[in-house]
Specification:
CATH topology: Alpha-Beta Plaits
CATH class: Alpha Beta
CATH architecture: 2-Layer Sandwich
Strand order of the largest sheet: 1-3-2-8-5-7-6-4
Helix content: 40-55%
Number of domains: 1
Shape: globular
Structural class: alpha+beta
Order of helices and strands: HHEHEEHHEEHEEHHE
Number of helices: 8
Distance between the termini: 54 Å
Length: about 260
C-alpha cells in the first residue's frame, strides 16, 4: 500500500473513532447502560432419537420457570432448537434471565434438587456445557412467543481495543438500531452480552436478537444495510475494534416468555 493510500485509510479510521468517542454531550443523550441482567444458558447435544423426550423435559421444567417469572425471581425464560448445526455444537438449549446472579443460580439449584438435571433426555446428551452471561444493554416486548427465531453473533475485541469499547459500540451503533427494530415489531428482544463466568476470552461479546418470524431476519438485515449507509463511519469504527477471525453466528428456533 503506498503512502498516499495509507494516509487515506488512516484518515477514515481516525474520523470513525472521532464519531464514536467525541461529543460527550451527545453521548449523554444516547442509550445508557442499564442495571446488569444475568442469563443462564444450558446447552446440550441430544441424539435425534431423544428429541421427543427432550421436548417433554423442557415442558416439565417450564412449570418451575413460569413460577419464578410470576413471583419476580426472573424476568424471562425460553428454550431453543438449533437450526444451523455444527459438528461439536448443541442441538438444544434452555435459558432464563434475572436481575441478579443469585436469582439465576437459585433457579438452577431448583432443577438439581427436583431431579430435572438428571432426566433421561439430558442424560442422553453427547455433549453439555453452561454459560452465564451479563448484559447492560437489553430490552424486550413482554409476552409469550412460540416459533420465534434467535440470531446470535459472537465477536472478539482486538487486543488493543480501548477500555469500554463494547459500551461505546453499543451506545453508538448497536442499541440505536436494535431499539428502532424493537419499537416497530421487527424484533422481540435484544441484548449485548459478555460472560459473567468466563469460559471464553475476556475480549468476547455477543449480540443477540429474537425475531417473531422468519421475515424478521430479512427485515433486520435490510435495516442493518440501511444503517450502514446512513452512518458510513460506523463500519470502519467496528472493524478497527474487532478481530473477525473469531466471529461466529448461530440461528435457533425459539419459544420464550418475557415479563
Amino acid at each position: 500500500m503506498n503512502k498516499k493510500m495509507w494516509r487515506i485509510v488512516a484518515g477514515v479510521f481516525a474520523l470513525a473513532m472521532m464519531a464514536l468517542w467525541a461529543a460527550p454531550a451527545r453521548a449523554q443523550e444516547g442509550p445508557k447502560e442499564k442495571p446488569p441482567m444475568y442469563s443462564y444458558v444450558g446447552n446440550w447435544n441430544i441424539p435425534r432419537a431423544q428429541w421427543a423426550e427432550m421436548d417433554k423435559t423442557t415442558a416439565a421444567e417450564e412449570a418451575v420457570l413460569a413460577k419464578a417469572l410470576a413471583d419476580g425471581t426472573i424476568v424471562g425464560f425460553g428454550d431453543d432448537l438449533t437450526l444451523v448445526h455444527q459438528p461439536d455444537g448443541s442441538t438444544h438449549d434452555q435459558w432464563w434471565s434475572a436481575m441478579s446472579m443469585a436469582a439465576v443460580v437459585n433457579v438452577l439449584g431448583q432443577f438439581y434438587k427436583n431431579g430435572s438435571a438428571v432426566s433421561p433426555a439430558l442424560a442422553s446428551a453427547t455433549k453439555h456445557w453452561d454459560n452465564i452471561f451479563v448484559s447492560r444493554f437489553y430490552n424486550w416486548r413482554p409476552g409469550t412467543y412460540k416459533g420465534a427465531y434467535t440470531r446470535v453473533a459472537s465477536y472478539k475485541l482486538k487486543a488493543d481495543a480501548s477500555e469500554g469499547a463494547i459500551g461505546t459500540l453499543s451506545k453508538n451503533l448497536f442499541v440505536p438500531l436494535l431499539e428502532k427494530l424493537l419499537a416497530d415489531g421487527t424484533i422481540l428482544e435484544y441484548e449485548i452480552d459478555t460472560e459473567a463466568i468466563h469460559s471464553e476470552s475476556v475480549q468476547s461479546f455477543w449480540i443477540v436478537y429474537i425475531a417473531p418470524n422468519a421475515d424478521g431476519l430479512d427485515k433486520y438485515n435490510a435495516a442493518l444495510s440501511d444503517a450502514q449507509k446512513m452512518n458510513p463511519l460506523g463500519g470502519p469504527a467496528f472493524v478497527s475494534m474487532v478481530d473477525f477471525s473469531g466471529h461466529r453466528d448461530s440461528l435457533d428456533w425459539s419459544n420464550l416468555t418475557y415479563k
